[in-house]
Specification:
Layout (H helix, E strand, L loop, with lengths): L2 H21 L6 H8 L3 H7 L3 H24 L6 H16 L9 H10 L3 H28 L7 H22 L3 H14 L6
Protein name: TetR/AcrR family transcriptional regulator
Organism: Enterovibrio qingdaonensis
Pfam family, one: TetR_N
Length: about 200
Amino acid sequence: MNTETHSTRQHILDVGYQLIVEKGFSNVGLSQLLSHAGVPKGSFYHYFKSKEQFGEALIEDYFSHYAARLDGLFSDPSLSGFDKLMTYWRKWIEINDGLCGSQRCLVVKLSAEVSDLSETMRQSLLNGASNVIAMLEDCVKQGIRDGSIQVSDANSTANQLYHMWIGASLMSKLNQSTEPMNQALETTERLLKGQHPF
């Protein structure tokens, strides 16, 4: 894929991401997407066979960038496993701030909507989330090794935390407040320190 082709495809994905996070996948029509992107219909079908395939590509692109940012944080040798995870969750609150606007909470926005709509998009979301959980698990294991995290099962802890934060993000969206995520942060710290979470 040459630079111009990649740039046009990425531009369509970037514009689509903005629209879908704001309006939802079903509420964004192809004509609206093309109008905002400033590209002809033929250009869209050059890169994507259908709106559903575009949705898959959008999810994969989102998680690719997400994983790169997460890797940047988790590879910082100056931080303990505990500090890396707590930094990650604090950034989650900053980015999601209860409003779910641009550059925010695609998983929360799309999971319920597309799970019954598209099996391939559901699978793309699940694969992306599973990869994030695996990265969290690796970080928990590092924290266990360096003594900053006191849990016995890294896999269970990573799954529990991610699931809790997805739920907290959804409740923050409903409340238009970060309070559910602030509560999740307190629970996360207690859980990682081996204290009773509630």
